[in-house]
C-alpha cells in the first residue's frame, strides 16, 4: 500500500457539475447556464428563499408556499407547493448550499438550480434546469427550453438590479 | 438519480482524483453522466460498484491523456526506464503520481486503493497481467524512491 488513504488526491463534483450530470442524463431536459452579475454571497441566499425568489423569475409560477421544513441526509428538506396555471403543485425539495433539487410529488416535473462563486465570488455562475422526466416527453423540449431561457433572462436582470 | 450520485461521489472522487489529477473534476463529471445515462442497462444491482469503477477508470485515463501532465509514452510502459519523477523535498503523493503515466496511476488505484488482484486489474484495463505487474512495479518504485530521497 502506498500510504494513508487521505494522501490520495480526491476529485470533487461541485454543485454546477452535479446539476450538469442530471441535465445530460434526463432525456428532454432543458437547461441554461451563465454568469449572474451579483455576488454569490447575496445570490444564493436570495435563491434559497424560494417563496420570494421563484415567483419573481419563473414566469409560470405565481406563488410558492413552504409547508414543512425538515432535515434528512444532512440537508434541509422542504415540502412546498408551487402555484402554476391556478394549480398548486406539491414539490419535495432538497436544499443545499449552491444546490436545489425540486421534484414534483408524482415525479412529473423536476427543477434543479445550482450556483457557484465566479470571479472570486464577485459574480455567480448559475445553472437552471427543468425537465418532465416521463417517457415520450422529448417533444416538450423546445417549449421547455424557451421557458428556461426566459427564466434565466429574468434572473440575470434581477441580479443586475440587486434583486 | 441525485441520491445515486451522492452515494457514489466519495468513491468516484478517489478514483478520478488519483488518476486524472488536475482533470479529476472533469473526469468525475463525465463518469456520472455515463453512469446516469446507462444505469438502465445494468441488470444486476450487485454489479454496480464494479461497473462504476470501470467507467471511472476509463474516463479518468481519458481526461488525463487530454491534459498536459502525461510524462510517459504508454507504449514504453511494458518495459523500459522508470518514469521521471519531480524532485521534491516533501513527500507528496500528488507530485509522485504526476510523474507517472495515467495507466500507471490507474493500476496503483486499482491495486492499492481498491484492492483488486493483478488479474482483475488486467481484465478491467484490457492489458495482459504481466503488463499490470511491470507497471505496478515501476509505479511503486517511484514512490519508494521519493520516500527514500
Compact summary:
Helix content of chain A is 29%, strand content 37%. Chain A is an alpha+beta fold and 163 residues long.
Keywords for this entry:
heterodimer; A: alpha+beta; Alpha-D-Glucose-1,6-Bisphosphate, Chain A, domain 4; seven-stranded antiparallel beta sheet; 4 helices; 7 strands; globular; disordered N terminus; B: 149 residues; mainly alpha; 66% helix
Task: Describe the overall structure.
The complex is a heterodimer of chains A (163) and B (149). Chain A is 29% helix and 37% strand. Chain A is α+β, with helices and mostly antiparallel strands. Chain A has a single domain (23-160), classed as START domain (Alpha-D-Glucose-1,6-Bisphosphate, Chain A, domain 4, 2-Layer Sandwich). In chain A, strands 1-7-6-5-4-3-2 form a seven-stranded antiparallel β-sheet, sandwiched between helices. Chain A starts with 14 loop residues before the first helix and ends with a helix. With 149 residues, chain B is an all-alpha fold. Chain B is 66% helix and 0% strand. Chain B has helices at residues 2-20, 24-38, 48-65, 93-98, 102-113, 118-125, 129-148. In chain B, helix 5 (102-113) packs across helix 7 (129-148). Chain B starts with a helix and ends with a helix. The relative contact order of chain B is 0.14. Mean pLDDT of chain B is 81; it is low at 68-91. Classes of the chains: A alpha+beta (163), B mainly alpha (149). At the A-B interface, helix 1 of A face helix 1, helix 2, helix 4 and helix 5 of B.
- What is the CATH top level name of chain A? Alpha Beta
Radius of gyration of chain B: 15 Å
Q: Main interface pair?
A: A-B, 23 and 31 residues
Radius of gyration of chain A, taken over Cα atoms and rounded to an integer in Å: 17 Å
- Derived from helix and strand composition plus strand pairing, the structural class of chain A reads alpha+beta
Strand content of chain A: 35-45%
**Principal-axes shape call of chain A:** globular
**Assembly level:** heterodimer
What is the number of beta strands of chain B?
Answer: 0
The proportion of residues forming helix of chain A, as a percent range, comes to 25-40%
Q: Uncertain regions of chain A: pLDDT < 50 for 5+ in a row?
A: 1-5
Domain unit count of chain A = 1
Low-confidence regions of chain B: 68-91
Query: Major β-sheet of chain B, in short?
Result: none
Architecture per CATH nomenclature, i.e. the level-2 architecture of chain A: 2-Layer Sandwich
Helix content percent band of chain B: 55-70%
Q: Whole-number average pLDDT of chain B?
A: 81
- Taken in chain order, the helices and strands of chain B follow as HHHHHHH
CATH superfamily descriptor of chain A: START domain
Amino acid at each position: 500500500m502506498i500510504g494513508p488513504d487521505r494522501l490520495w488526491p480526491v476529485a470533487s463534483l461541485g454543485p454546477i457539475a452535479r446539476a450538469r450530470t442530471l441535465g445530460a442524463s434526463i432525456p428532454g431536459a432543458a437547461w441554461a447556464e451563465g454568469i449572474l452579475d451579483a455576488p454569490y454571497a447575496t445570490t444564493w441566499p436570495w435563491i434559497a428563499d424560494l417563496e420570494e425568489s421563484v415567483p419573481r423569475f419563473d414566469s409560470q409560477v405565481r406563488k410558492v408556499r413552504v409547508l414543512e421544513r425538515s432535515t434528512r441526509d444532512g440537508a434541509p428538506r422542504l415540502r412546498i407547493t408551487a402555484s402554476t396555471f391556478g394549480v398548486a403543485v406539491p414539490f419535495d425539495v432538497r436544499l443545499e448550499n449552491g444546490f436545489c433539487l425540486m421534484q414534483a410529488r408524482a415525479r412529473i416535473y423536476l427543477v434543479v438550480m445550482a450556483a457557484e462563486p465566479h470571479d472570486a465570488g464577485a459574480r455567480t455562475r448559475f445553472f437552471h434546469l427543468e425537465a418532465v422526466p416521463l417517457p415520450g416527453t422529448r417533444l416538450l423540449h423546445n417549449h421547455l427550453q424557451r421557458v428556461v431561457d426566459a427564466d434565466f433572462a429574468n434572473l440575470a436582470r434581477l441580479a443586475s438590479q440587486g434583486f | 438519480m441525485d441520491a445515486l450520485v451522492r452515494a457514489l461521489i466519495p468513491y468516484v472522487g478517489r478514483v478520478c482524483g488519483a488518476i486524472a489529477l488536475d482533470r479529476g473534476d472533469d473526469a468525475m463529471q463525465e463518469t456520472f453522466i455515463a453512469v446516469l445515462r446507462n444505469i438502465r442497462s445494468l441488470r444486476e444491482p450487485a454489479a454496480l460498484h464494479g461497473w462504476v469503477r470501470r467507467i471511472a477508470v476509463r474516463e479518468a485515463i481519458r481526461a488525463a491523456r487530454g491534459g498536459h501532465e502525461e510524462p510517459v509514452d504508454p507504449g514504453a510502459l511494458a518495459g523500459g526506464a522508470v518514469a521521471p519523477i519531480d524532485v521534491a523535498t516533501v513527500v507528496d503523493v500528488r507530485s509522485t503520481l504526476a510523474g507517472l503515466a495515467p495507466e500507471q496511476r490507474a493500476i496503483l488505484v486499482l491495486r492499492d486503493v481498491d484492492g483488486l488482484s493483478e488479474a482483475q486489474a488486467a481484465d478491467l484495463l484490457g492489458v495482459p497481467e504481466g503488463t499490470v505487474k511491470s507497471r505496478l512495479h515501476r509505479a511503486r518504485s517511484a514512490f519508494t524512491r521519493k520516500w527514500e530521497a
